[in-house]
Amino acid sequence: MCLGFKHIWTEITNVSKKWSMRRQMLVCYLMVMILVLSLVICLVLLNMSILREQILLEVEKTLSEEASDSMMAIIRGGGAYLYSTFSEVTIMGSFIREMLVNMIRDENSFSLDYLEYHTYEEIPESSLYTEAIYGVNSVSFNFSTFMNFSDIYDKDLLKKVSRFDNFWWVIYDLTNSTAIRYLIYFEQANFILAFPGLKFPDGYNPQTELWYTTFIENNKSSTATNAYEDKLGNGSYIFSLAEPLYHSDGSLIGIFVADINIQSISQEMSILNYIGYGEIALVYQNGDILKANAPGWWSNEHTNMNNISDNEFWSDVLDNPESIHYMIDDNQIHRVATYPISSETLNATSDWYYILMMFIKEQDIMQYKEDSKTEIENTGTTLILITIFTSVAIIIIIVVLIFFLSQSIRKPLQGIIDFTDKINANATEKDLATIKELENLKEGEDQIAKLVQAYKSLAGSLINRKEDHIPHPMHSSEYKEFYPNELYRTNILDLEDLIGKLKDQ
Where do transmembrane segments lie in this chain (predicted)? Predict the structure, then answer.
């Protein structure tokens, strides 16, 4: 292999010796530039490759962390919104409680006038309005309605709470995006009050409602319920927030209840997504998913978190309710952001009573990361192409500069070569180079100029010597005629004189 390389190199050297100086210079510079460009491109490609791999690793890690952080930020925002809307309802319960306590303690200090209390049948027909969420029965937003459960009920208390019709519509208007109705159940007084005014179904018993049984299970403290079918409306699913109404002495006056439609909550929460992906679910303490009956809601496919294929998921959520979890369900990996919803006024059996969840398929997040990687790779390819094109442009510029530089060297040297050829040609006097031609030689710059100047001096002296040896015609005054005999005698005398001198010596 070494001998073959040596043979190739020898052939290239022999061929290059036949080239002109300009061609040799251009080829040498071009080879150097190509070598330098190749090294630069190799280094750039190597550095870009290493840098791209490092960037892709960091981007994948960063995007994964960013996805989790973004999901948590989104779910916290949704949880804060739900907390604020639920708090509005519980604040209204506190407001009602204060009014009741004041009325019972000192009725004369209560400034609102008494109003007529009504059953549904006593409401003027002009005050009834059709609402889809209440089914076939119309409701009244001007009056509340009551239902007594015995002939013996506290009419005096009913007269007092008739004053609430002065402001029920204000409370409803402030919170109608959350609560679809308010109920106050006076168990000891044997009646229930509802706003908007509605028709209670025959045989309606509030003690069989989920809000009442949950309230009793929680030792008559503030509570929130699981989802259940609405008996007072069109049968859609609702959940309720219940607040106890206590006397100042701690005895129970009644229960303040706000019914919330899951459909409206799901519509408000449906805007929560990460880069266009994500399903939202509201989960109760026991793992039941509050069904929204709305397309696109993840909870439509399941009923309880304990029933999903990933048995460890729900226990992980209970251990750390505000975090990112991973769940495997139906051969799909989901990344799940969870956020507990609690309230200072709702004392549930645990620190939270609902938990808001955002489910995103991991493949959707991976697709986002792949798109980001592709964009980075395309950017890296663009940078490499820019580097190559820039390097080629630089080489072209350098070659042009080298060409003009070689011209400044070649022309003076070529002039020397041509002039030397004229001197060595043994030309006749008519064709000999003259001083004028010598002076016209281009001198170039720097060392080339010195070389040409030295050559001019040398060539000039050679020209002058050659001109001195040229025979010139003589004038007649310079000639002296010698006759043959006289010349002979002169030469003989000179010879004899020279011989005599030699003898003396």
Answer: 26-46, 383-405
**C-alpha distances out from residue 126 to 86, 153, 181, 213, 256, Å:** 32, 29, 20, 36, 28
Half-sphere exposure of 283 (CA within 13 A, CB side): 28
- Pair 179, 304 in one domain: no
- pLDDT for residue 429: 47
How many domains does the chain fold into? Answer: 2
Quick one: 98 and 215 in the same domain? yes
- pLDDT tens sequence across 434-474: 555 655 655 555 555 666 666 666 666 666 655 555 555 54
Q: Does residue 209 sit in the same domain as residue 348? A: no
Tokens of 201: 């179904």
174 and 320 both lie in a single domain: no
Whole-number CA gyration radius for the chain: 56
pTM for this model (two decimals) = 0.63
166: pLDDT strictly greater than 80: yes
Beta strands, E only, 33-123: none
pLDDT beyond 70 at 285: yes
Q: 210: helix, coil or strand?
A: helix
- Whether 192 and 107 map to the same domain: the answer is yes
The dihedrals phi and psi of 274, each to the nearest 5 degrees, come to -120, 115
Calpha distance 284→304 (Å, rounded): 9
* CATH number assigned to the domain comprising residue 175: 3.30.450.20
Neighbours of 319 (CB within 10 A): 9
Predicted confidence (pLDDT) per residue in 23-66, tens digit: 666 667 677 777 777 777 777 767 666 766 666 566 666 667 77
The Cα 88–Cα 73 span in angstroms is 23
